[in-house]
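INFO  loader      accepted 1 record
INFO  loader      residues=233
INFO  predictor   begin
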Amino acid sequence: MSLHWQTSDGTVVATYVPYSHMSDDDARLFYTTMNSLLVYANQRMGVVDPRALVEREGAPCMLYEHGGQVADTLWRNRGLVDDFVRDNPMRLGDAHLACARPWRRAVRDAFTIVAADADSIVCMNQDHLFVVGAMQDPADAHVSAIPSLDLLTLLPFKGGIVTSGMTIHLSCEPAPWAVPLIAGQARELSRRTVISGADQLEAYGGLIPDGENRVSPRFQAEVDRAFAEGALL
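INFO  predictor   done
INFO  writer      dumping tokens
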């Protein structure tokens, strides 16, 4: 599958999308692995009352209620993934452990969304453009506007890249003065390697120091406040 998008100078960029649209089996693998990891992370870090981590009503195998708050802490402490895979406290099968293992190099950052369709989104941080495949929902269903700024955690999965299942909208509409700057940055980054494969993401994520929070203090404070007020789950 290929994605085509146009930069502000009219350049058309084509990128291969290795993985998009989870099958029922893939979704079951992904979400049961993720939920087990969230339960484990919460046991280790005590983020929320363990009784609050329950499946969303009418959506079996989807992310747990209040899992977002746990996840936001987990992805700033990625070393827990190593412990989870090594100790296998939930007694998961080999397929689930293989699914979780590369999440050690998850990339949590503030990303600007520069293109989107049903199959994938293109987002950028300060270093690269990333192509992220759709999960079960259309990828653009979670995009508020183009451009917009979201807090995302990108994970390797089945050879491609997906999100952790949580999108936090940081800024749905940039200031008018920022739009040409965003366009210029996207044009510049399109000349670099576009990260679309799991191996590429793992290599990039491996360069990020453990414990580094790439989200600015201002936006992190807003996210923390939203979790505390129950606006985010």
